[in-house]
Amino acid sequence: MNETASGDYIEGRGFHSAVLARDSKIIIYGGSISNKAKAVTPVLAMLDINIYPFRWTNLNNFTVDAPSPSLTCHSATLYDDFMIITLGRFTVYNIEVLNNKTYIFDTLNYKWVKKLNRRNQLTPLKIFAIVISAVVLFAAIVLMVVFRWKRKVGIQDDRLSNF
């Protein structure tokens, strides 16, 4: 199957990385247009596969503090909502330089960050649901204990009345 995509122009590339974000959007970073590590344009892009035809978005327009220069032959993985990019190489004045740094891209807010800012995943609605569930569970356990106790007491009363 050969799909076409609309949206921003995204240059063809190799030696890049791609991750599938939580919202089913593919984030690509870096790469080159030749084996000489010539940087691509844009360095950061997103392919929305939730719509048809698929849609490319140039994320360079939405980001500040991007790592410089563009990397090739690097690794990327998704952790929570963060794309973690590490190692690889870049070219400066036709000299290939190996990279030992790690960069973090927040795929929810489309910005580069210095550290993993773990958000509190418990919203007021989730907290309310947890409390209600705990109360219902507690009430069910109490009712079950009371029911068993009454049944046991009832059986003992029946035995006594037979004598």
Features:
163 residues, alpha+beta, 2 domains, 5-stranded mixed beta sheet, 1 helix, 11 strands, 29% strand, elongated
In N-to-C order, the SSE pattern is EEEEEEEEEEEH
How many individual β-strands? 11
Q: How many discrete structural domains?
A: 2
Major sheet: order of its strands?
1-5-4-3-2
What is the helical fraction, as a range of percent?
A: 10-25%
Report the major sheet.
5 strands, mixed
With helices defined by DSSP (H or I, 4 residues minimum), what is the helix count?
1
- Per DSSP, what share of the residues sits in E-state strands of 2 or more residues? 25-35%
Distance between the termini: 84 Å
**Uncertain stretches:** none
> What structural class should be given to the helix and strand makeup?
alpha+beta
InterPro entries: Gal_Oxase/kelch_b-propeller, Kelch-typ_b-propeller
Protein name: 26106_t:CDS:1
Keywords: Membrane, Transmembrane, Transmembrane helix
Transmembrane segments: 127-147
In short:
The chain has 163 residues and is an alpha+beta fold. The protein is built from 1 helix and 11 strands.
Description:
By secondary structure, the protein is of the alpha+beta class. The protein starts with a strand and ends with a helix. The longest helix has 38 residues, at 124-161. The protein is built from one helix and eleven strands; from the N terminus they run E-E-E-E-E-E-E-E-E-E-E-H. Keywords: Membrane, Transmembrane, Transmembrane helix. The chain crosses the membrane at residues 127-147. This is 26106_t:CDS:1.
